[in-house]
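Appendix B. Raw example, untouched.
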Amino acid sequence: MNKQFIKQNYRWLIWAVMAVAYIVVFFHRMAAGVVKDDLVQTFGISSATFANIGAAYFYAYMVMQIPAGILADTLGARKTVTYGTLLAGIGSVIFGLAPGVEYAFLGRTLVGLGVSVTFICILKILSEWFPPQRFGSMTGLTSLVGNLGSVMAQTPLALMVAAFTWRYTFISIGLVTLIVAIFCYVIIRDHPSELNTDKMQQSTEQKVKPETPSPWASVIQALKNWKTWPAVIIITGFMGSYICFSGTWGISYLTDIYGISKEGAANYTLVSTIGFMLGSFLIGVFSDRIHSRKKPMLIFGLLYLATWGILVFYNGGKPPLNILYPLLFTMGFCAGTYFLTFAAVKEVNHPQTAGTSTAVVNTGGFLGAAVLPALMGAYLDQAASTIPLVTVYQNSFMYPFIAVLISTVFILFVKETTCRNIWKSPNENN
C-alpha cells in the first residue's frame, strides 16, 4: 500500500481506535443500572447507596474534566488516553472482585477517573486532524459509535450477567479495557506533523496558531468568558436527565411500574440509547449543514423537554406501555443535541485550547449526571413506603424535568457562531 495513502488516511485509524476507547467509556457509564439488583443482593445496600455507587463514576469523571483538558493540551491525547484507559481497566477488575461495598466504590471511582479523559482527548484529536467545518459531524459520529457501548450495556450485558454473574462479567470487561489501552498507545498520534503530512496539517484549524495561553490561564479564560456558561448549563440538565433514565433509574421504573422483566425493561432503555446514537450524529450533521449551533439546539431541546413532560405528567406518571418505545426513542434522539455544546464552546474560546474549553463544558454534564440520579435515589428511599410507587417515580422524575426546563431556557443565551471560531483576544475590539 502506498505510504502517502496511509499518511493521508491515518486520521481515520486514529479516530477508529479512539472511538473504540469511547465505546468502553459508554459501556462503563451505563452498566450500573443493569446490575442494580445484583449489587443490592450482594452487598445488602439501599437504593440511595446504589445510586451513590453509580454516582462515584460521575463524580470522579466530573472532577477530572478540567485536568483532562489540561493534559490533552499539554501531555497530549495519546499518553493521556492510554494512561486513563489502563486505570479504567484496573478499576473494572477491582469492581468485579470487590469483597465489600467499599471496594465497589473504589472500583467505580477508578473507572470514572480513567475514562474521564477519553472524550476530551477525542475532541482534541478532532480539532487537530479534521477541518473545523466538520467538527459537529465528527463529534456526532463519535457519539454514534461510542454509544455502541451503551447498547452493549443494556440487553447484552443483562444476558452476560445472567450467564456468567456480574463479577466475572466486570472482570472480563476490565481485561478488554486494558487491551484497548495498548492499542491507544501504539496507534494514536497527537498531531499530523508527527507524520510529516503537510497537506493534512493545512486542512486543520491549526493553520493559524495564535499564541497559546498557559494551562491554567486557559481554564481561567474559558471560565471568564460569558459565552461558555450557557453551554455548561445546557449540558448539565440534558446529560444529567438522560443518565437519570437510561443509565440509572429507567430499568427500575419499568420493572416496578409496568411489571416487566429486567431483560424486557432493558429493551426499552436500549431504544432510548439507539435514539441517542442517531440523534447525536444527525443533529451534528444538520448543524454543520445549516451553519448554526443555536437553531438545532433550540428545536431539539424543546422536543426533549416535551418528552420529559409526557413521562412526568401524562396519565399520572404512567404513560401507556404502547407509546413508550416511540417516546423513549424520541427522548434519546433529542438528548443528543447536547453534543452541540462542545462545538459551540470550542468556537467561542481560544482555538489552541480546545481540550480545556470543552472540558469545562463536560464538567457541567457530569455534575448533572452525578447529582440528579442521586437526588432521585434519596427521594425514592424516603418516599417509597409512604405513597404509591407510581407517584414516587412521578415526583422523582420532576428533578430531571426541571433541570431540562432550565437548560432549554439557557439555549436562548447561546452565542451563534455559524460553525466557525469567533474567539477574540481581550485586546481586540468586540
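End of appendix B.
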